[in-house]
Amino acid sequence: MYGMVNLAIEGLITERYGHSVWQTIKDSAAPGIERFLTMEQYPEEVTQGLVAAAAEITGRPMDEMLNELGEYFTGYAKRSGHGELLDIIGSNLPEALDNLDNMHTRVALAFPDLRPPSFWCTDVDDHSLILHYLSERSGLAPMIPGAVRGLGKLFDTEATVRQVASREDGADHDQFLVTFDAKSQG
Amino acid sequence: MYSPGSEQFALLHPFHLVMDEQMVLRQMGPAIPKLVPGLQVGEPFASCFQVQRPRIQPTYDAVRVMQRAAFLLECLANGVILKGQMLVDEPRRMILFVGSPVINDRTKLKEYGLTLSDFPMHDSTADLVVFQQQRLINRKLENLVQERTVQLEAEQAKSDSLLHEMLPAGIVQRLKSGEGLIADRFTSVSVLFADLVGFTPLTAELAPAEIVELLMELFSHFDSLIGKYGVEKIRTIGDNYMVASGLPHPRPDHAQALAHMALEMSAYIRSRPPYRNRRAEIPV
Prior knowledge:
The complex is a heterodimer. Chain A is α+β, with helices and mostly antiparallel strands. Chain A is built from 7 helices and 4 strands; from the N terminus they run ααααααββαββ. Chain A starts with a helix and ends in a 6-residue tail after the last strand. By secondary structure, chain B is an alpha+beta fold. Chain B has a 6-stranded antiparallel β-sheet with strand order 2-1-6-5-4-3. A 3-stranded antiparallel β-sheet of chain B has the order 7-9-8. In chain B, strand 1 (17-20) and strand 2 form a beta hairpin. The radius of gyration of chain B is 42 Å and the shape is rod-shaped. The A-B interface holds A 98-99, 101-102, 104-106, 108-109, 117-118, 120-122, 132, 134-136 and B 53-56, 65-66, 68-72, 81, 83, 102.
């Protein structure tokens, strides 16, 4: 995993709970690392450890933590120089979601070590769609609802996201029902 | 709507593939055999290609839902990545792949047995290869600039330390800041000249290296006194050692300081062992 996700966790924790809480979390999950670098590779366990430690130290459920991280991550990506990419991903939320896999593929071509998830949409109509999510990593699905809501914010679109199929419950991959405000589509 | 003929289509898309519902190869562009020698129509898609992105199994139905995704196909034979688009022709139950190999430097092109003439004009691979080549050249130039900068800094440090040896720090500063003619007036200073007695006949007796060694030894010791008395070494000429006191920072006791230094210099001369049976003397 590139350091960007770990940096987003750092940003979220520091903003919500302050620097010393983050220090405690980092010291417990990644004691050897002084600071994370965006384009540096870190073991998957570091990210998992950070989320687990964050949930434990703040006393909040892991899923809730990941959900919040998902929403934060979209804003973080925009602020950390990927905003230009997000600006051209689509002209509204459903278009952006439809184009998500395409964008990840192009970024993966630029960063060969990136192993991004796949996304695709089915059952698209004016105010809802099913977003499919398939990753080789496990346990990050709770980030998706937050990330979709965060993406919606970039288009001034309020989105509600409900998981309708879960790999943990034996489904082939995770699926989310995304409903959104139809009138905001450009 | 206008539709090109099959020959034109092959020209436009030399790397295209057509698969049937069972994902068996039905057609391929003229440049594909260059990439995958020996590939025949009728072979299963999965025996020669692997879908790297999106993360799906290469089946007709999976591809059908992923038509909005960019596809990366890996040629199993040589690892070449074809980037492109899958189109599903539902009435005919066929899948069309249109794309071209991902090439980001010209050496890869050669490695894959391709030249830019294998790419259609509308494809941006040629521009990318040129762009990457330019970047490579720029990077080499940048490295060269960095290397030279390091060398320059090292040389500058050398010349700086040389300047500092010869001139007071304040003067060096003023020289470096571009002050051309530096001449300050000091109203009250002391100046010391010291010569070795009998130096000139001594030079006739000693080898040059021995003379230098003698002077080095004496002057190094004198130099160590400079800091102790807070005086300013001006320079040495031959056996002549010149020191000033009360500049560049004026001080009321400049004469005393220099006199103390002079006394210690002659004390040292008297105390050191004779050189070649000659006792060096140094009137100050």
